[in-house]
Amino acid sequence: MVPLLESITRSVLVKISIRCDDAAMLRALRQLPLVLLLPLNLATSLPDQAPPANAPPSPTAVATAANAKYPDSTSGLEHLAKDILKAQAQNDGAHADALLKSLVLSNAYDWYDRFFGREAADVVGEYYVKAASSIPPSLAHIFVDIQLQNFSRIDALRYEHSCDDNAADEAYGVLLRRREPFPIYELRFLSGNKFIRIFPIAYVDGAFRFLLSPDYRVPGNFPRNPPAPENHPSANPAPLERRITIGGVVQAAKLIKKVQPAYPERARSEHLAGTVKIHAIIGKDGQVSHINGVHGFCSLAESAVAAVRQWRYSPTLFNGQPVEVDTEVDVIYALSK
User: Which CATH architecture has domain 243-333?
Assistant: First the structure.
């Protein structure tokens, strides 16, 4: 299984002047060894810090108190982040560990199944369940780095139905794929014109939970057809529909109808440009049947998705039979000089 820290650091972006990635920081985070991550004791990392005055609460007690102490609001999430940093600064490793454990989503498979569908549950939900024990220590490393680099200001943002171009690149795609409405949070730690972003976070069962973005393309995994339940009419009679994966450049050659996306005026006024990446399923008839992941500025992504939904491809054949295609589409927006 790919180390969880690599997946988390795909959601943790260090940026300069709002939108310029700090690649060195990301590389450093990816290289942190999970095998060394134990319940926090920061005596070697943060010296000369006083021990806690009282015994720390248990993880169960922290989770139980979360609903009252950390309500479903931006201030509640900011309070939680400050308490994690405070526990670390006081060398209170057990309390920090308990708070970090409260961020783990329980029943992850069922949760992803309900809010993002069976395929997301089969890949991302399953991956989350297997990697759950690595989430607290992986996040702990990030919080330690936040302290060591003095990211002192904390801001939490909440996204529901609005489109915000200052949100994480994958925010629009996550909101688009929800089967039921619920808010997505983003946590930012700022120092001057730099910030570290942790995304996505949701409020589930009375506490904030760190999520893995419900993108089918968890490293090493691709969409697969879910098994039919026992005694279900479709359990045995016919083989599952075949779906093949084809690179975006190859699939682009099969494009027979292209609707040009409009350049949103809001994006022009904000001088936004770049590439919107869309992960799509093309049906056996050549029509775009599902859009499962979107990365890019929200105003550009909305326009790109609206256009790509109308595109049509010539059917892809496998052994002479039409099949579904799992592919990526890049829509490039460039401002004229």
Answer: 2-Layer Sandwich (3.30)
